[in-house]
Design goal:
The protein has twelve helices and ten strands. It is an alpha/beta fold and 321 residues long. The termini are far apart. Residues 1-20 have low confidence and may be disordered.
């Protein structure tokens, strides 16, 4: 009896060690995208999942879990088993911006999630309808000061990066322009096109196909430096609104407690994807620039953004009703 028990125990130890040392991934990996299909996160994530499936010999399965500005999907990952088989392909909203907007969240991005890599970044674009007599940011600001409370700007929703950019510009430029929120980038763009609202802060992937249409005039990008996608378009910071820096970015995170070796492998594999010509071309189509950062660099970006957005939300008195 003793010999049999010892043999069984030894077998369990050996099997357990073999299992613990099995190459990762040894089974399908779920990539949670916290937005519906067809958005910027999904459109970047799907070709990456296909590449990872080919590389790993295991399925990298996209799982769209939209809701609550990305927070539903992020919570799912934050509360998942930290074994590397459930990972989050996130955008900046559910990881940094929402922390400043919502006093209570079901997860803490800095405590419950671990950065793997920042994949890409994209600016917003300040555009105006051609009927507005402003051909530069300085002319726009001068017109807004001459007509306080009369010029409106569209965002894709209250509390989003588009709204943050508009309110931050109001603070820095000392102008009074009116916020008109929409339920998404499509309706927002349509009303700027139609001249129903004078201007808008619009995501570059949404507006990129229409830049040569003549229906809008592009004044600036919202990042601190010019975009590689629109090198001829100045930044707001260089156009008289010094210090303004709002961008949408995308990255990969895993649940806290995920082994370091798995995080390192995921970082290596995802960073390699950002260097592939077809992935970079896909990002360019969406107005995004590849990053491929280290985990530490991505963590610093998140911390910096949270601090930045907390200050803007407080100073601009932005609240979510």
């Amino acid at each position: 009896m003793y010999i049999r028990s010892f043999a069984v125990a030894l077998l369990l130890v050996v099997t357990g060690n073999a299992s613990a040392q099995e190459p990762y991934p040894a089974r399908p990996v779920r990539i949670v995208i916290p937005y519906p299909p067809g958005g910027g996160t999904d459109l970047q994530g799907r070709p990456m999942a296909q590449k990872l499936t080919e590389k790993w010999g295991q399925n990298a399965v996209i799982d769209n879990r939209g809701g609550a500005g990305g927070m539903v999907g992020a919570e799912i990952v934050a509360k998942s088993k930290p074994d590397g088989y459930t990972i989050l392909m996130c955008a900046s909203g559910e990881v940094s911006l929402n922390v400043a907007l919502f006093p209570k969240m079901a997860y803490d991005p800095e405590r419950d999630l671990i950065p793997v890599t920042q994949l890409s970044i994209s600016p917003l674009v300040l555009v105006v309808h051609p009927s507005l007599p402003a051909r530069s940011v300085r002319e726009f600001i001068a017109l807004a000061k001459k007509r306080p409370g009369e010029i409106a700007y569209a965002s894709s929703g209250t509390g989003g990066p588009h709204h943050i950019a508009g309110e931050w510009m109001k603070l820095l430029a000392k102008i009074n322009i009116i916020h008109v929120p929409y339920k998404g980038g499509g309706p927002q763009l349509a009303d700027v096109f139609g001249g129903h609202v004078h201007s808008g802060f619009i995501a570059l992937p949404v507006v990129a196909p229409h830049l040569k249409s003549g229906k809008i005039r592009v004044l600036a990008v919202t990042t601190a430096r010019r975009s590689q996608t629109l090198p001829a378009v100045p930044s707001l910071s260089e156009s008289g609104v010094a210090g303004l820096d709002v961008a949408q970015w995308w990255g990969v995170m895993v649940p806290a407690g995920t082994p370091g070796a798995i995080i390192a492998k995921l970082n290596t594999d995802f960073v390699a994807l950002t260097k592939l010509p077809d992935i970079r071309a896909r990002m360019a189509e969406l107005g995004a620039e590849p990053i491929g950062s280290t985990a530490a660099q991505f963590g610093e970006t998140i911390r910096s953004d949270i601090a930045k957005y907390r200050k803007i939300v407080k100073d601009a008195k932005i609240s979510i009703n």
